Amino acid sequence: MVPSLNGRLEFWSLALVLTLVMVSTPSFAQQALPDLVITKIWIGDRNNTPIVPKAGEGFYLCATVKNLGNAQVEGYYVQPYFGGSTLATGGPGKLEAGGAQDWSSGPVVVGPGIYEVRWVLNPDRKVPEANYGNNEISMIIVVEAGSPLEAALQPVGGLVGLAIIILIVLATGMALRKYVERGKRTQPSGEESGTVRRHS
């Protein structure tokens, strides 16, 4: 049995329609999607200017988020962590395709030591993205002690530390005064310093 010409045309017409439908319908991989990535993280002051963190002084965890995708993203959140503890969540954020935005969290005040800083983007994955594998970054930082005096007073900071400094200054002043007075008593009696004597 030989298929009719009509049957062949119907088959090829149907095949052509299915092909056109498949070509015109974008797959998930071809859809316009955002792709959030953290391009850098650092420790900064309240203006995001990079600083070296010191114990007892407030600093901020800073991050730059970029949208590498080909679509705008809206409603994403950022989650910073410091030393294993969760800090306040930031968001919702909005970024055009190719856009970048700085985020910061803080101030953080800690003692000297070594700490991990970690940022996670879109932690609950509520915003569709082309790649979820690039949504986390971390680094290790060293928080240095301040000056030796600051380090010595670290456990007793605030008003107690200030009171200790004032007592040290007063004690030093009293000791210096006694030293000067003792020096005046040891001068020979006929020669007073800074006096004028008349000779006849």
Strands, count: 8
CATH homologous superfamily grouping of the largest domain? Immunoglobulins
| Tally of distinct domains | 2
Strand content: 25-35%
What general form does the structure show?
Answer: rod-shaped
Number of helices: 3
Rg estimate, integer Å: 36 Å
Instruction: Please summarize the sheet with the most strands.
Output: 5 strands, antiparallel
Question: In CATH terms, what is the architecture of the largest domain?
Answer: Sandwich
**Structure classification:** alpha+beta
Gap between N and C termini: 159 Å
Order of helices and strands, N to C?
A: HEEEEEEEEHH
CATH fold-level label of the largest domain: Immunoglobulin-like
CATH class of the largest domain: Mainly Beta
**Low-confidence residue ranges:** 15-27, 191-200
Helix content: 25-40%
Quick check: average pLDDT? 79
